[in-house]
Specification:
The protein is of the alpha/beta class. 34% of the residues lie in helices and 16% in strands.
Length: 321
């Protein structure tokens, strides 16, 4: 989930506790609570809040990551009758799954074996976000039509352990998302350092490699700009792509909780404009950026879309008007 525990404490996933950790986990009760913002719940609630998914998708996510048999299958009468409590089996440290780490080679292979966006589900999504087909191609956006087949091909070429290590699957032999999806690669030079998956056939909206810090999207753009140039910091990847398509230099940060303080130094030379989404999460994003740059005596302006919209919605509305 990208939360780093020290003992039973961590920084809250909502990003408000920059001074000291306020997120606490009780492993004995299988619950968590943030004493800063008051959010609390169990494992399912945590997945729902971080990934923005419904109850069943959160259950399926947990099943796929921890090898729970019966994922995505309704529990029938016979299954209920034979269900029983068993003692957990000891875990062999020699065979346990490796910790997740970026795998540019595997990510690039997956992108290369997907195709340009052609299905109506994908083209409609891109059009609704102001992204023309040629712009999608420029940023390497591809469609993944069949997640089950994609996993089989990945496993055949790389092996299940390598896929888990790259953060794309759990203990179950399947990708962590299902159904048709768009893949947005994050480039660092020629390498693909990260993937964002936009799921279009489930209530899970976005997925990124589990346990891997989220990098800045379109970061190489910084090296192409002169000091003092206008640079937009967007809250989402489609927003940054749509802004670039409109001739405006843009990078994207995947929400306030993924902004890293070390990025401030890279962004200081530019004339910064923050572009949050027009919702409650956008307000947190705006406050986070304002606080980070205020600490370095750097000003940043904000352009806030209408309520319920984001930058790509506004650009698409202009193009489709």
């Amino acid at each position: 989930m990208g939360i780093t525990l020290r003992g039973n404490k961590a920084m809250c996933f909502k990003g408000h506790d920059t001074a000291s950790p306020s997120f606490t986990v009780s492993k004995a009760r299988n619950t968590w609570r943030c004493f800063g913002c008051g959010e609390h719940g169990d494992a399912i609630a945590l997945v729902r809040k971080i990934h923005g998914v419904g109850f069943m998708d959160a259950c399926n996510w947990l099943c796929s990551h921890f090898g729970i048999i019966g994922s995505e299958v309704p529990l029938g009468g016979r299954a209920r009758s034979i269900a029983r409590v068993t003692s957990p089996k000891p875990v062999d440290s020699q065979t346990s799954a490796p910790s997740a780490r970026p795998d540019p080679e595997l990510y690039a292979w997956l992108i290369a074996h997907c195709g340009p966006v052609k299905a109506s589900l994908g083209t409609t999504y891109l059009q609704a976000h102001g992204i023309a087909p040629e712009l999608a191609l420029k940023f390497g956006v591809v469609e993944l039509v069949n997640s089950a087949r994609a996993y089989r091909e990945l496993e055949k070429h790389w092996g299940a352990e390598r896929i888990r290590g790259a953060g794309l699957s759990g203990s179950r032999r399947a990708l962590s998302w299902f159904g048709y999806a768009l893949l947005f690669p994050f480039k660092s030079g020629a390498a693909t350092e990260y993937l964002q998956v936009r799921c279009l056939e489930s209530s899970m909206k976005f997925f990124g490699p589990s346990g891997i810090p989220k990098p800045m999207f379109n970061r190489h753009r910084l090296s192409q700009l002169q000091p003092g140039s206008l640079l937009h910091i967007c809250e989402g990847v489609p927003d940054a792509i749509a802004m670039e398509g409109a001739g405006l230099a843009a990078v994207a940060v995947l929400g306030a909780t993924s902004f890293r303080s070390e990025w401030v130094e890279e962004l200081l030379p530019f004339n910064l404009v923050g572009i949050p989404d027009g919702d409650a999460a956008g307000e947190k994003f705006m406050k986070c950026l304002a606080n980070e740059f205020r600490a370095r005596s750097k000003s940043i302006r904000f352009v806030i879309p209408p309520e319920g919209m984001d930058a790509s919605d506004v650009i698409a509305r202009g193009k489709n008007a």
